[in-house]
């Protein structure tokens, strides 16, 4: 069991529905976000490439945030989901410093917060909020170890990449290109 | 050309537009921790050598600064926590992978031990001192018999305390400026050097001052060597490290690093110390304060500049 996500950069229109769905589903405090849209422009005219990406915590296999956490508040649960226990987090920001994706922020109540892969929904067999709401169906979520899951099928026939693989973190979010 | 922008949702405090989650308390603590580690190292080292009588400042007086530095440093750390009431969670786990965790445990051991160390010398240095309660007096007298044992415990502990402040930063592979293996030794040597400077400044004994001027000179030499070594490492590194080094070579932190840390914090005080060793009269406070200021600014530069550096994807 290894949860992962594939996001089709060719289908993403950057509408930010995933961001709003996440904020609503997870009661993210106003002004904060656990996922976001990035637009990258590569090259010079006339050879310009635009890529839209919905980004979030990569639930890394070799998670530097879990390694750096002094209290064990950041931990990995079954299925490779990285979570933070608010009552164990002292708010030292070590995990924020250690994340190459800047995926974590300090919640106004003091603890560090980030994407949970909607584990409360996933436990019930549901998709993550961002996957469910995406109007272009460009987010695929599921078990990477299961060859018939949505995410495995999406990765099967397409070229894909991960963000900053050279950081050695083993990200579990893949971008179809 | 590569341009990247957030279409939506990202305006997280202390993270956007660039990471700034660690503010002034962190470099202040790193400085005070390194200073305390250096003072404890010299005190325990010369106690083990049996030089309590000939090195009164190093063994007896200077350690008074250690508990103060550690308590102020820990208060700064506590102030920086955003979930303060859960700080005790540090002591419900021991995570060797996290330098912050074992650093917290080392501090848990070193801080009370440094207080005991100082307490055993109070009556000797201030004869009119009265502990009021016999139980305290007896306990401290008991500890005073085991100063050598304490020194043997404190010697390795002080090295761990001094080096961990650098390893703490180098463990973050997401920050290329920090992510090099020489940062731990660099912080350790810098801490020892600031401690030596403080001893020079506070010592009233001429021989002691001269010895520590020599020690400080050697330490400054090692520190400069490590800084050059670190820069060479950046220059030979991948693009993220080249970008990190660019902050110190023509970037926003160039002047503060090369002028205030390297020239005014290391080279200039070293020149003054050489002049003093050659027999010229130099006010001891001047090179000492410069080394201390250089050490403090160095930690500010590393913490602030390090947080700007990141992986670009």
Describe what you observe in this structure.
By secondary structure, chain A is α+β, with helices and mostly antiparallel strands. Chain A is 20% helix and 28% strand. Chain A is built from six helices and ten strands. In chain A, strand 6 (105-106) and strand 7 (112-113) form a beta hairpin. The longest helix of chain A has 9 residues, at 17-25. Chain A is globular, with a radius of gyration of 16 Å. The relative contact order of chain A is 0.26. Chain B is mainly alpha-helical and 313 residues long. Helices cover 68% and strands 2% of the residues of chain B. Chain B has helices at residues 25-48, 56-61, 65-80, 99-125, 134-144, 147-170, 183-202, 206-235, 239-246, 254-277, 285-308; one strand at 2-8. The longest helix of chain B is centred in the last third of the chain and has 30 residues, at 206-235. Chain B is globular and about 70 Å long. The interface between A and B is large, with 52 and 48 residues. Strand 2 of chain A pairs antiparallel with strand 1 of chain B.
Please provide a brief summary of the model.
With 177 residues, chain A is of the alpha+beta class. Chain A has 6 helices and 10 strands; from the N terminus they run E-H-E-E-H-E-E-H-E-E-H-H-E-H-E-E. Chain A is 20% helix and 28% strand.
């Amino acid at each position: 069991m290894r949860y992962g996500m594939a996001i089709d950069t060719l289908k993403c229109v950057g509408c930010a529905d995933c961001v709003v769905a996440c904020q609503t589903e997870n009661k993210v405090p106003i002004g904060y976000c656990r996922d976001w849209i990035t637009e990258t422009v590569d090259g010079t005219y006339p050879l310009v490439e635009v890529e839209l990406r919905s980004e979030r915590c990569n639930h890394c296999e070799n998670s530097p945030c879990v390694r750096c956490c002094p209290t064990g508040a950041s931990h990995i649960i079954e299925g490779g989901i990285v979570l933070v226990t608010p009552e164990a987090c002292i708010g030292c920001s070590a995990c924020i410093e250690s994340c190459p994706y800047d995926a974590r922020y300090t919640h106004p109540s003091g603890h560090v917060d980030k994407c949970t892969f909607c584990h409360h929904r996933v436990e019930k067999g549901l998709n993550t909020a961002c996957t469910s709401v995406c109007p272009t169906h460009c987010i695929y979520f599921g078990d990477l170890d299961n060859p018939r899951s949505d995410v495995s099928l999406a990765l099967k026939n397409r070229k894909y990449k991960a963000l900053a693989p050279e950081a050695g973190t083993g990200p579990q979010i893949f971008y179809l290109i | 050309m590569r341009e990247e922008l957030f279409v939506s949702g990202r305006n997280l405090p202390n993270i956007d537009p660039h990471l700034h989650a660690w503010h002034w308390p962190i470099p202040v603590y790193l400085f005070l921790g390194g200073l305390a580690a250096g003072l404890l190292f010299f005190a325990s080292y010369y106690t083990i050598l049996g030089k309590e009588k000939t090195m009164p400042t190093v063994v007896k007086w200077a350690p008074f600064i250690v508990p103060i530095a550690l308590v102020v440093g820990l208060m700064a750390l506590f102030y920086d926590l955003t979930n303060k009431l859960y700080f005790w969670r540090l002591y419900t786990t021991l995570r060797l992978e996290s330098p912050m965790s074992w650093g917290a445990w080392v501090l848990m051991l070193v801080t009370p031990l440094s207080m005991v160390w100082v307490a055993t010398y109070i009556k000797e240095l201030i004869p009119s001192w009265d502990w009021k309660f016999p139980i305290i007096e007896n306990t401290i007298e008991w500890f005073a018999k085991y100063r050598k044992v304490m020194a043997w415990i404190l010697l390795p502990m002080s090295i761990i305390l001094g080096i961990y402040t650098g390893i703490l930063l180098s463990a973050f592979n997401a920050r290329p400026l920090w992510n090099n293996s020489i940062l731990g030794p660099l912080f350790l040597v810098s801490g020892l050097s600031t401690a030596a400077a403080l001893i020079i400044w506070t010592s009233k004994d001429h021989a002691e001052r001269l010895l520590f001027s020599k020690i400080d000179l050697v330490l400054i030499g090692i520190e400069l060597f490590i800084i050059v070594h670190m820069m060479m490492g950046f220059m030979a590194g991948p693009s993220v490290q080249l970008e990190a080094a660019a902050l110190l070579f023509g970037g926003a932190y160039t002047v503060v690093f090369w002028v205030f840390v390297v020239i005014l914090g290391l080279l200039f005080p070293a020149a003054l110390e050489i002049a003093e060793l050659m027999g010229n009269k130099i006010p001891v406070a001047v090179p000492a304060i410069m080394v201390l200021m250089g050490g403090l600014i160095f930690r500010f530069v590393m913490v602030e500049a390090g947080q700007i550096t990141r992986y670009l994807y």
